[in-house]
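Quick question, first post here. What does this chain look like in 3D?
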Amino acid sequence: MPEVTSRLSTALADRYSIKREIGTGGMATVYLAEDLKHKRKVAVKVLRPELRSQTLTKSRPSWTRLSGATKADHLAHEEADRAFASALPDRVLDHLKGLQARGESSGSPVNRLTHRLPVATRAQHDGRDEEYVVCCLLHDIGDLLAPYKHAELATLILEPFVSEPNLFMVREHAIFQGYHFWHHLGFDRNAREKFKGHPHYQHAVEFSEYDEASFDPHYDTEPLELFEPMVRRMLSRPPKWAEGDENRMTASEIKGLTV
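> Answer (accepted):
Ran it through. Tokens below.
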């Protein structure tokens, strides 16, 4: 294998398997490769070194303060934010796969992924719709980074894409699940009764039944791969507040941006 191809193979080893060079032009060299994640053949184009440095210098923004950027700069920044947001399904799925690899114990008979999967599996087998099933899969996604507020973090991730009943279900799931065990810890197992009369109370009760039953390591759980297309479809929707205009950010979106 030529030296350049060997170095390229090493640099991209976690994403692509470089097979061979298939063409060279005035600006770039093209290689045949296999996309390891999606199991398909792709073409990888590599710019000539002198052009890579010119492109990087040319494309890097020159402004250093938001107030010093032009309208064109902010529109370009907005477009970059959109591209970043569009990769949310990949980041969420990578997080779940990371849990699978880590296999961390949660102090229960199952680990942090093998609790989520049976919740989603039970809902799917019961004929729940796709949004509900994905909420089941992701309801505890916040526990790695926000162990004391995991439901709130999951809610923030899901809020742009899901209905109010499902949002309530995820946001309050800890207190509804508490009915099944809080009395053993000296807490009020009936704390969820403060929501009695809420239009989504029963919706959350039903979810808690799936949730509390999903600690059986012998349950015939569907694999994560079954749910992956569902996650991609749901998290690729336009945010709820932008459904009428997919080409422009709204005040609500702008308020939530970080830089």
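Residues 71-86 form the longest helix (16 residues).
Strands lie at 16-24, 28-35, 40-47.
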